[in-house]
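Issue 218. Parser rejects a valid record. Input:
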Amino acid sequence: MSGLSEAERGTDFETRLRQLKLAVAAMPPLPEPEAARAEEVRVLEAEHAAAAARVAAFRKTIAVLPPPATPDALRARLKEGTPEPPETISYGAHASQFYRVHRPGTPEPWWVVLIIHGGFWRQTYNVDNACIHTVAPALARRGFCAVEVEYRRVGHGGGWPASCDDVGAALQHCVANVAGLSERRVVLLGHSAGGHCALMCAAACEHPPRLLVLIAPVADLVHAHERGLSDDGAAVLNFVGAAPEEKPDLYALACPTRAGIWTRLRSDVVLATGDADADVPLELTRLFLARLDEGLGGPRLLEYVEPAGDHYSVVDASNCAFAEIWEAAEGVLRRPGL
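Output the parser choked on:
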């Protein structure tokens, strides 16, 4: 600007001054101090409300286990009171595709225990007469949401793989449709043939159960067939549809030991059998225990319980044998798992 005359410098200064004044006039007014503080408070309150909502949502995902108890105290607690009547819910079109929900008297969310009854997959045995009917109301009194699962059995749409598929479908439907439940808080409890179905379901689940409680499971179909267990020795034959030597490919899928089930399990396991079990002989459960102990991979927990009792007393909730098994189950749930 050194080359400009004094008059030109004056004109340029006036022009720039006018532009500056116009720019200042176009700026939004500064907020009053009180208004600025009010806006800051509003923002902070909104952030606090959002954080509180996240905390509340997180708390709803935490289900508190009941306090620990000795087998004697647990047995007494399982026998207390009159349970509320369960709700029956269908998960499919077939008459056998339903489950019964026994809700606890404690606030949700809950741990859920899906109970799979036995009976060597035969239509004769159902949720009411398969000797395990005392377990669901007892576990509800203990503070768990207990769900009795019915499924298609041999002769009425069941057999391999339909019976096992039904257990998986019931699990998915239950977690999705019963308030207070989560796929992260699932226990599958299976007795006898129900133990087989629970095993196959757990191995196929996208979201595996936290714990499997297998009570006298029919875990080796080939040995069970060779021993001629139940139904005049034809229970396994009727379930699979053929003998092992006739359809070895079917047994490679349907038999937990032939399928190497332990390589696909992502759940902790409590395995139990009565020391006087004549229906699923003790040696079969011990053989499966050895396979599990050798092959169960990853950070899985495995507990074995062998209480005094036969095939039926171990699933009678008033019996000390079941209390011993369930104490082991709760012990596993309290330790770090999945």
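Fixed in the parser; the record now loads. The chain has two domains: 6-57, 71-334.
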